[in-house]
Amino acid sequence: MAQIVLFHSTYGLRPAVHAAAERLRAAGHTVHTPDLFDGRTFDDVESGLAYRDEITREELLHRAVKAVAPLLGTDGPGLVYAGFSLGGAIAQNLALADDRALGLLLLHGTSDIADDAATSIPVQLHVAEPDVYETEDWLNAWYLRMLRAGADVEIHRYRGAGHLFTDPELHDYDAQAADRTWAAALDFLAELDER
Fold it and tell me: For 77-100, what is each residue's pLDDT tens digit?
């Protein structure tokens, strides 16, 4: 079973993140949910984005690296990095910098990719279609750059769903899309175990 680091969105470490972690634990995985916002959560995306900007992306990445560092052993399989929206961007940055990363599960978010990035990890992305934060042009460029880096990329798009469609407390929530996401994500993680 995988050891997963699951990063929260700009809303903070909300109940939906804990529920997702419990869902993954029920499938036998070990899941860590670092709190990059020091206990702060937000009810709207604007407040969360403002707090993210106040902290700065660099500091958030530093906090993420610090949270993951104790989990990086020298033996056994590597980590699976996962995250929601902003947390997906953070997870992607860490996974591409970790030579021992086992996989990358992106829920609603991606990040830019360095021109010299190189990885062979499997990547699964779940995203709304359309998505105001992950536009068609951005996703096409992201996909091509991930392929060029060597990643094995699988994309699942959910027409008509809101951006954070897996969070039942948000207006974006889409139960059918969320169920499909978790079914595919669990299959993806099971396949990683077989590698």
Answer: 789 999 999 999 999 999 999 999
